[in-house]
Amino acid sequence: MKKLFITYLPLFVLISCTPSTTISETDTNEAKNEINHVMNKWHESAAKANHDAYIGTMSTEGVYIGTDATENWTTLEFKEWSKPYFDKGQTWDFKTLERNIYISDDGKTAWFDELLDTSLGLCRGSGVFRLQQEEWKLRHYVLSITVPNDNLNEIIKINHATDSILIHQIKEKNR
Description:
It is built from five helices and six strands, in the order αααββαββββα. The chain has 175 residues and is of the alpha+beta class.
């Protein structure tokens, strides 16, 4: 019994001294509140045509995916594309109707989805945040237009010609 105790004592000490990798419920709620605030300010920055604040929310390694199949930009590409619109004050004003935020066990990554009231109608946004130097940075954002299931056949018909061309181009490029 003594040998067993001496053999396993270091293991028990090691386990008891190992810091927890799961953040507390309080820290999780605080992170969710911070991200909710950052997202609200991000949408507000667009509505107020504040390009620096808008792009500054995104990680330099970020990705923005728009509603068009060709809109898959790095942060730098999106910055360059969006700048003229912000300069002219021709931006967008997304109002959040609902948002769900999820935090990783280590508290360093978060993902979310949101339903938005936009000039395009109802849209869905989703994305990923990463905690970088005590600041939440948007690493990935996807904007999509919602389509009621009852209207899918109409949308498929409308998109068919354009989708066919894009599918062909992408297949050719990937050969």
